[in-house]
Amino acid sequence: MNRILRRLIFLLLTFSLLGAFAVGAVCMGLKEKSGIAIAGKSTEGHILAEIIAQLLEHDLGMKVVRKYGLDGTQILFHALETKEIDLYVEYTGTAAATILKKRATFEELKETFLEKYNMVWLDPLGFQNRYGLMMDPEVAAKWGIETLSDLAAVSLQISFDQEFYGREEADILRKGYHIPFEGLKLMDHTLLYVALKRGGTDVINGYTTDGFCKGLKILDDDQNLLPSYEAVPLTREDVLDKHPALVATLRKLKGAISQKEMQSLNYLVEKKGKTVYDVAHHFLKRNHFI
């Protein structure tokens, strides 16, 4: 009788252990197949994050958590580092200045971020969001201005916002391109576009993918003196280990978004009131990504 009882206890323990292993395996499987958390900076970052999210959902059937309440380079970088998020689009010049505190090439960024933070820069999306100088196209045509070097040869009314005036780019324009700053006006950034539209100034600074600069003439950095701000998805090494197919899927977006395209996407959200989801979805459909 004791022998039968011991055998029953043994069988019960065996089934219990097998059940525990099965539950553990299922939990591990669910964890392995769980999705990723994506974030983005401001309107542009949210649009790019949504494009990536919808592509991953379509191609990989991946569950994507959108964390659009986060903003700013330091906040997003910390969130990526602490695994609160798994991916966001960063700009090379911003990462170099804010995280590394120095100028760095894309190759230097990739090497340093991998060694120091176990983070991986994926393929560039195809555009830069950096400061530039812009004009009304008709005024630019009248004076024959295409580049920053052309601007140095004429005397026009230039207006900057105060933040830009204190940046490295303004110093490069003055010392590298020898653009005259005599009579320079400083004003709030939002007023720059109004002043340009109303003829109160000839040249303003702005972000090259800003929806508000849609239709303006952005002067070419013909000597390549200004810092590079390539838009590039940034993730961690462990995310790619867990989701190896992610690299090939996001490679579809390599070089797929031009400066003019990004301007238009921002314009649709900021000026036309379209939702981020719809703008991203239409972009993916129009370009046959989904």
Automatic annotation (TrEMBL):
Pfam family membership, one: OpuAC
Residue ranges of domain ABC-type glycine betaine transport system substrate-binding in the record: 42-285
Entries under InterPro entries matching the protein: ABC_Gly_betaine_transp_sub-bd
Gene3D superfamilies listed in its UniProt record: Osmoprotection protein (prox), domain 2, Periplasmic binding protein-like II
Protein name (Swiss-Prot/TrEMBL): Carnitine transport binding protein OpuCC
Lineage, opening ranks: Bacteria, Pseudomonadati, Chlamydiota, Chlamydiia, Parachlamydiales
